[in-house]
Amino acid sequence: MDVDTGAGRGADRRKPGAADRRGLRAGLAVATVAAITTAAGAFVLGGQAAAAPTTLRAGAEAAGRYFGVAVGQGDLGNGTATNVAGSQFDMVTPENEMKWDTVEPNNGQFNFGPGDAIVNFATSHNERVRGHNLVWHSQLPGWVSSLSGSQVKSAMEAHITGEVSHYKGKIYAWDVVNEPFNEDGSFRQDVFYNAFGGGAQYIGDAIRTAHAADPDAKLYINDYNIEGTGSKSNAMYSLAQTLLAQGVPLSGIGFESHFIVGQIPSSLQANMQRFANLGLDVAITELDDRMPTPASSSNLQQQATDDANVVKACLAIARCPGVTQWNISDADSWVPGTFPGQGAATMFDTNYQPKPAFTAVLNALNGASVPPSSTSSSSQGANTVTVTNPGSQSGTVGTAIAGVQVLASDSASGQTLTYSASGLPAGLSISGGSGLISGTPTTAGTFPVTVTVTDTTGASGTAAFTWTISGGGSSGACHVQYDKTSEWPGGFTANVTVTNTGTNAITGWTTGFTFPGDQKITNAWNATTTQTGQTVAAANAPYNATIAPGANTSFGFQGTYATNDTNPTAFTLNGTPCS
Ligand code: G3I
């Protein structure tokens, strides 16, 4: 069921009372972080394993995700707000400061001050930035709409190039195109649509332009009311398929998630997963969950359930990198200004204190790393170390695992536990201090894993389980052709063509090979390469993840060498040797 958030309508409304709210919160005491820690609590298993994270960012990071927040320039002058934003989150989206009307109010005249201030805040708190947004019908200065069609095209490309270049290397992901659809799934016929003669045309052009300016940034289309299945979400799905088939470097879809309490679509996870299955990242980009104000305690409890369910859906999807809450607290939220009588939509109240939703979300994040399981223990000294067996695990070559937390406890107090593992699938490793296993599998197969946990006296316990890594859809039948396309003293370029010689489509691939010489890849195209010593893993880009039976795809790279750039001769695809 679709939820009418009215988020798009917000574009046309003003925020009455916003100044009042900002004034109110500026007077609040700066004592929130300690309160949050207490409210969230911490659990310690057997007294010795690491305490559960007490902040959203730590919980998210332990689960291999980020937890983001929208921050506006007005928030930066409020110490209480920045305390929460700086301690609870590890990703920041500028609420308005990177939108067209702020960044390029007049043709060719760029104003990066407000956006830079948000980036500086994020950087100084060790937080990354989601850029929001480059092309949107709203918050668009009037001069764009008065241009002719061909002028709109060049203005759009110049705007994207100017803004993305300015922030090159500082932005994790861009919402390149924002809210392109009407509720019935038809394209919004805005100035960009009209100038290019179609939705896929301007969107493809915008994404390619952004990619040219910062090839490392992830590039998203972002919209609301696409969280559950329905005509708008189906339209986004077909657009994604069209763009990927055209080779447009689309990386992900942003699901804004402006919800109404008790109305989270039941199809949320399955819907996001179908986009992920196209090889796209899927992020919750603007989470809030509004209710009539003043809030009733039953609605606050329902909000806790809602928000935790949204976070659990993200955690269940390997390609969901994180969740962003829209605004820091109920004092900053856009909701009351757009929906009078509604609010209380975030996890922090108007005094920046954590609400039930905060605790529920933190528990959901922490629960992600605590799978239900049996335990095993053994004793080699006076102490007994008990290791919680995480149970059988699975993964796919080339797809990062969300993170598996092995927990342990000790019969004695005051012991420091050290974790080690044998038999882990290639590409995964365990943190000796925390027992968190993370990484990206590079080889398919079934791996018997033993985790050993040792305390300060030498007493230890173990847990043994099996980790099955599948080959990312490869039938195992493949051919790889490596061609050096140019060579000069100390440098070379190469092209690699991967052919699916099997009968099943390959969805998501990683090509592995070992350089015989001392080559080092310096930059690659149409694949993401990771080099460890002489060993290289090249993973598909989102737009070339699928190789149909009999079809091929190519990627290339440039590299340096000192003495030897002999071509590699043996290749694998998703861990299986190719001819
Ligand atoms: O900057 C002017 C100020 O000069 C003027 O005095 C004041 C008068 O009301 O308005 C100020 O601009 C406001 C702007 O926020 C900056 O505060 C606009 O009126 C107001 O409409 C605008 O609202 C923003 C809204 O996007 C616009 O569509 C909200 O803060 C922002 O939270 C909201 O964010 C959007 C996402 O970008 C896209 N998805 C939906 C989401 C919620 O609507």
Automatic annotation (TrEMBL):
Q: What is this protein called?
A: Beta-xylanase
Q: What are its E.C. numbers? A: 3.2.1.8
Which InterPro entries does the UniProt entry name for this protein?
A: Cadherin-like_sf, CBD2, CBM2/CBM3_carb-bd_dom_sf, CBM2_carb-bd_dom_sf, GH, GH10, GH10_dom, Ig-like_fold
Enumerate the spans annotated as CBM2 domain.
Answer: 471-579
**Chain segments carrying region Disordered:** 1-22, 369-394
Q: Where is the composition biased (Basic and acidic residues)?
A: 10-22
Write the record's keywords in alphabetical order, separated by commas: Carbohydrate metabolism, Glycosidase, Hydrolase, Membrane, Polysaccharide degradation, Signal, Transmembrane, Transmembrane helix, Xylan degradation
SUPFAM superfamilies found in the cross-reference section:
(Trans)glycosidases (SSF51445), Cadherin-like (SSF49313), Carbohydrate-binding domain (SSF49384)
Q: Where is the composition biased (Low complexity)?
A: 369-385
Ribonucleoprotein is among the record's keywords? no
User: Can you name the source organism?
Assistant: Catenulispora subtropica
Pfam families, A to Z? CBM_2, Glyco_hydro_10, He_PIG
The answer to whether keyword Membrane applies is: yes
What domain of life does the UniProt record list for this protein's source? Bacteria
The catalytic activity, as recorded, is: Endohydrolysis of (1->4)-beta-D-xylosidic linkages in xylans
The residues covered by the GH10 domain are 70-364
